[in-house]
Amino acid sequence: MSWLLRAFQANGVQYEEGMRWLGLDRRTGLSDSDVVAVAWALHADADEVRGRMTLLESRAGGRWVHLAGHRLCRWVAPTTMMAKLCPLCLRETGFARIDWLTRAVPACRRHGCSLVQACAACSRKIQWARPGLRICRCGRFFKPLEEVVGSLEPELIAWLEWVEAVLIGDAGVARSASLRLPPLLQDMTVDGAYRLVEAFGLLERPGAPVRDVRHSSVSLSVVGAMLTRGLQRLSEVGRAEGIAPQAFEGVHLPVLTELAEESAADVDGRRAAWLLDVYRAMQPSGMRRVGSRPRRQMPLFL
User: Fold this and answer.
1) pLDDT digit string, tens, across residues 42-66
2) Range of the domain at 192
3) How many domains does the chain have?
């Protein structure tokens, strides 16, 4: 989207005017025919544009999108007018990073700070509809908030490096970063890995409410803390025989079940289903189990 915004700005066209001219609506996601229109307007190759946009998967009823060739649910890659960014990165590079379009990246690993969702000058939420990539609708340049500048946990830094490398197609960096992630995340997609980490990190403590953590307007510092918590808990989970029952006390089972039932790739669903198998095997015998078995899950141990 930053490419499109920069192109509009270079031609003296406001974002809203350019989107109307192209017949596009960021809130609903883009179709493949929209990509052709954008490529024509930018005088660019359609495949290159396709790799930089969030595209709707038509056969999924609007629940799934494709970003940089990766299948993501819209919870992980929302199609919204709101944007988040690192003002320091924008000042240094002049472009927005593709991983900022996902919920999986709440912080900047280069500058050790949370990404910014609101303008420090006017406090309004940052939108794609703005005068320039670095400029808010109030006319001020974006600045990092003083309270978000600092250092990030090593688990979160490894996660951010892995997500960025996967989305930009840097296999070498992605492989190196994945070695610093919990073994259970190996070979999973960005969508599946995020949702698995989310399942393990949502609950700050057993029985805690999730509504303060899992909603679209939650602060990015809270998302970062959730990811760090989930990664730390997942790092303690390995082979089935070595998993203690206490490992599941902080797991939000509905999110894990949702991943087992509907995933971006089979490997994600199988990983979640295996964890549910392990959890159920730990329950006291004779305990009444309610609900259907997730898809891809074998009846063994149930």
Assistant:
1) 777 777 777 777 788 877 667 898 8
2) 181-281
3) 2
